[in-house]
Write a structure and sequence with these properties.
single chain, 277 residues, alpha/beta, Metallo-beta-lactamase, Chain A
């Protein structure tokens, strides 16, 4: 995307409308805007004047300056400071033409490693694991959508390891060796303590994984936006504000799409949450 972010103005407007259960027509009427102009915004064909952005932000309960900065491509999150307790390799892969991120998490002290999500591209994970000479002992899934779980069978055959997932998620094809995680459960990875955080809303059983000052957050939050609430918009909002934002501001957030960010960056610059946390 031109901004480098997962979501542009059009995506944010759609997701904010979802939070109010509004149609495009409802929003256009609320801001006294021609419906076709709003449709063009949500198709990424139109960036409106500042006055229109301010009106949209007000009726959608978004922070106006933060929304404008994203619309104008004037904000990008500062990269998190790496945590020396762990090695985190981010793989930028594709499901067809759709960019996805998946991760190799490795304990710096012991070398034990885990895969976090498949990115629907298990071959890239296998190649990278061989390159850095690790054999992951665990596969941790944030949720079961195809871009995060497809290709699980290839990873299981290669690494011969179990897969962690929330019991409320559909079972991805590729293994029967599932470990069902609960909120707050600690998964040991070498000397690392990986804590499962229940973050539903995008899906019923969405999970984020927190280790030291890092959270692998799947599709719960994106830099400057939030995930799509396929399951529950209120649950997703609470997962962010009550769970992810309970961690210190310097905590890194590594999502399934778009750039890494931090809790503090999102509190200060995300139009859904700026000024509310």
């Amino acid at each position: 995307m031109p901004t480098g972010l997962e979501d542009e103005l059009g995506d944010i407007l759609q997701k904010a409308r979802d939070g109010k259960s509004w149609s495009q027509k409802d929003l256009a009427q609320a801001v006294d805007l021609p419906l076709e102009e709003l449709r063009r915004m949500e198709r990424y064909d139109l960036i409106p004047p500042e006055a229109i952005i301010a009106r949209l932000a007000k009726v959608l309960d978004l922070e106006g300056q933060a929304l404008s900065a994203i619309a104008r491509n004037a904000w990008h999150p500062k990269a998190p400071v790496p945590d020396p307790a762990l090695d985190l390799v981010c793989l930028n892969v594709f499901m067809g033409t759709y960019p996805v991120k998946c991760y190799l998490l490795r304990c710096s002290a012991t070398g034990e490693a885990a895969v976090v999500d498949t990115g629907a591209n298990p071959e890239a994970i296998i190649q990278k694991a061989r390159e850095i000479k690790v054999k992951p002992s665990k596969i941790l899934l944030t949720h079961a959508h195809p871009d995060h779980a497809w290709g699980l069978d290839l990873l299981v055959r290669e690494f011969q390891c179990p897969t962690w997932i929330d019991e409320r998620e559909p079972r991805p094809q590729g293994t029967r060796d599932f470990q069902f995680v609960k909120d707050g459960e600690v998964i040991e990875l070498g000397t690392l303590k990986v804590r499962a955080l229940s973050t539903p809303g995008h899906t019923p059983g969405g999970v984020s994984y927190q280790v030291s000052r890092v959270i692998l957050s799947g599709d719960t939050i994106f830099a400057g936006s939030m995930g799509r609430a396929n399951s529950s918009w209120p649950d997703l909002y609470r997962s962010i504000t009550e769970t992810l934002f309970s961690f210190p501001d310097d905590t890194a957030l590594h999502p399934g799409h778009g750039p890494a960010t931090t809790v503090g960056e999102e509190k200060r610059h995300n139009p859904f949450f700026c000024g509310k946390s």
